[in-house]
Write a structure and sequence with these properties.
Layout lengths: L1 H17 L4 E2 L7 E10 L2 E10 L7 E6 L9 H8 L4 E6 L23 H13 L4 E7 L1 H11 L9 E5 L9 H17 L12 H6 L23 H16 L6 E7 L21 H8 L6 E6 L11 H17 L2
């Protein structure tokens, strides 16, 4: 009976959201957004936001972009690279991120990565309703982990055709002690004290590499994507740890999956020019190794000198990345 009630509520929200209207987006001309009202959670009202840019020619192909942690969609070049090939572009700001963050919420917080599944499912339903029969999910970092877990829960009746993962967060890039001892302990504590703050957040060196006010070329809203990442708590760590355990146990995805990463990881406490030429967030060897285990149709590819977000790398490198994306969207190879 409870399940029937939840299904009825979900259908009601979906029907209301299908009728929602697009309005102008902050990215400017050609970009539109739809605010999607989702069922409330323990913090209260919840929304997610779909951003759309249409190709100049009618298309039945579309891409859904899903961002990573401490992030939101802002990359016009990515959208342009896709739409100028005759493919419609969509992105989603997941609940409590970017455009979807509400003042009463803890920004970027979650207790289980499956909290994002309804957002993804709703976005895909809307894209299909708008006439698209060939849909590619393109996800970055934590979005890549979430997408992989979402795909594992949808082995049949899929609303998409293929997945492209941009530096997916499939494992921690930490020392043996932290990965084997400290993180599992903190994950266990997070079950009972989810709001317990973690002692140290992510370094700001990657943020400095990409933002134009520092050493990069990109301009974005630092309220939604600060140079030093938002503080994390034990509940968030537990959600990520549980997701990583599922990946290591084996997701056995039956999808066509392409996993992309840089050719090298960059480490250091002080910024150097090397930060422009590698992934300063994750271990690319682990991305490539775990990427191959996602399913029988999973393949991997390295983008030399790519940043953590391959779409934000220096122009020649991101141009190569865009070419790989388009080829896989069109051919699955």
């Amino acid at each position: 009976m409870k399940n029937l009630f939840l299904i009825a509520i979900s259908i009601l929200f979906l029907n209301e959201n299908i009728q929602a209207q697009y309005i102008a987006d902050v990215l400017g001309e050609g970009y539109e957004k739809r605010v999607i009202q989702m069922p409330a959670d323990e913090e209260g009202e919840v929304i997610c936001t779909i951003i759309r840019k249409k190709s100049n020619t009618p298309s039945t192909k579309a891409v859904l972009y899903i961002h990573g942690f401490c992030d939101y969609f802002f990359n016009r070049e990515l959208a342009q690279a896709i739409t100028e090939r005759g493919i419609d572009f969509y992105a989603i700001d997941l609940r409590k991120y970017g455009r979807s963050f509400l003042s009463h919420q803890r920004i970027n917080s979650c207790r289980n990565l499956n909290e994002y599944f309804p957002d993804i499912d709703t976005a895909l339903s809307i894209i299909k309703t708008e006439g698209h029969t060939d849909i590619t999910i393109n996800s970055h970092s934590t979005g890549g982990l979430t997408t992989s877990l979402y795909a594992a829960t949808h082995p049949t009746n899929k609303k998409y055709n293929r997945i492209i993962l941009n530096s997916p967060f499939l494992s921690m890039n930490q020392s043996w002690f932290k990965e084997k001892i400290l993180i599992p302990v903190m994950s266990f504590i997070g079950r009972f004290f989810p709001k317990l703050p973690l002692p140290k957040g992510l370094s700001g060196l990657y943020g400095e590499t990409i933002h134009k006010d520092y050493k990069g070329e990109w301009e974005y809203n630092e309220t939604w994507k600060p140079i030093v990442a938002f503080p994390m708590d034990a509940g968030w760590l537990r959600a990520i740890h549980k997701g990583h355990l599922q990946v290591k146990e084996g997701l056995n995805l039956n999808d066509s999956v392409l996993v992309l990463s840089s050719d090298k990881s960059i480490y250091g406490e002080v910024w150097t020019e090397e930060f422009r030429k590698g992934d300063a967030v994750l271990d690319v060897k682990e991305i490539q190794e775990l990427g191959k285990t996602l399913g029988p149709n999973a393949s991997t590819k390295v983008i030399n000198n790519g940043l953590h977000d391959l779409a934000l790398t220096a122009k020649p490198v991101r141009t190569e990345y865009f070419s790989v994306l388009i080829k896989y969207i069109n051919t699955g190879k």
